[in-house]
What we know:
42% of the residues lie in helices and 14% in strands. It is an alpha/beta fold and 391 residues long. The chain folds into two domains: 4-172 and 356-375, Glycogen Phosphorylase B (Rossmann fold, 3-Layer(aba) Sandwich); 175-354, 3-Layer(aba) Sandwich (Rossmann fold). The chain has a six-stranded parallel β-sheet, sandwiched between helices. Strands 9-8-7-10-11-12 form a six-stranded parallel β-sheet, with helices on both faces. Strand 7, helix 8 and strand 8 (230-234) form a beta-alpha-beta unit. Helix 8 (212-225) packs parallel to helix 9. The radius of gyration is 23 Å and the shape is elongated.
Amino acid sequence: MNPIPxxxxxxxxxxxxxxxxxxxxxxxxxxxxxxxxxxPKSIWLADACARIGAEYKPLPLMKGRFSAALPRDLxxxxxxxxxxxxxxxxxxxxxxTLRSLSGVADPPPLIYSExxxxxxxxxxxxxxxxxxxxxxxxxxxxxxxxSRAGNAERIIRxxxxxxxxVPLRHYGVAQVAIQAQVARALSRRELGLSDATPLVGSIGRxxxxxxxxxxxxxxxxxxxxxxxxxxxxxxxxxxxAALEKECRDLGIASHxxxxxxxxxxxxxxxxxxxxxxxxxxxxxxxxxxxALAVGMPVVATQTGGAAEVLIHGRNGLLAPIRxxxxxxxxxxxxxxxxxxxxxxxxxxPASVADYDLAPVTARMAAMYERLxxxxxxxxxxxxxAHGPPLx
Length: 391
């Protein structure tokens, strides 16, 4: 049996969602599936695709929403790849894919993987047009996977899709790989810090969504209580220069280190006292799953799926969104209570046992195979489903 050809369309070249897609493609057997990846140009994506035997077609999907060239170029890729399934990750990718499929004579079925509903990144009336776009995509998709269970419930309740069309309702992380990073973690001494240093860590792309400005303002208040406190930030992005300037303006430049993007971030962060995740909006933050999987005490903002996996006071603490003072108070509480930190370390791994990447990958593979089976032509009346009868 030939491998099922699947076209993966990804809007970003970086971020947790993109890395999740690559991790799933890496784990699925090449004897069962053949992947073509469409994503913005990226050296690491090109290298990763070459390593796993997937084709890579760079396309600048983050450019204009109403571009006529992008759907045309994507339609040409679809025509050459002839996929059995088009799997779009994120709103932008799904939007362009639907526009492209409208010009294909025999279009493949669309799977839409939501990594954050676009209306959840807007407030007030600005969210309405994005809500209409999401409704249209959901109604036209053959299958939908959601970043968190709450999002699956929302679209089913709203009538945007049927329950049996949402076979995967949350994602996961490669917990064994994350734990391996912790096993070779840098010591405090290797980081140039003492064991007594109050140490806050954070990880994410340096973009407005991740709320790092609120963390820096919270750290200014934390440093009043703990003058020797340090903050390690792993990640890179367009806001790095602005955030570094904000540190200088706040007078905390000597308390914050920007470590840049790291292939194994938990080797740098595993010896932190607290992990802070100050996002202003999220689907399900995969870094939260990683932190809990390796037993890190976590403070996270009450965004999207965070409250589905982090139970306040049981395996971590939640703080209000866009509130630096509240975030500072929550960090202060955890930094000042080593017994509470140890309670969270003990409770955290079991709380995300169901969010491992292995079962997520298995469900994704089953979804692909079932959808292809559904699309196969059914025998017409009078035809034999399994060949002519034996005489």
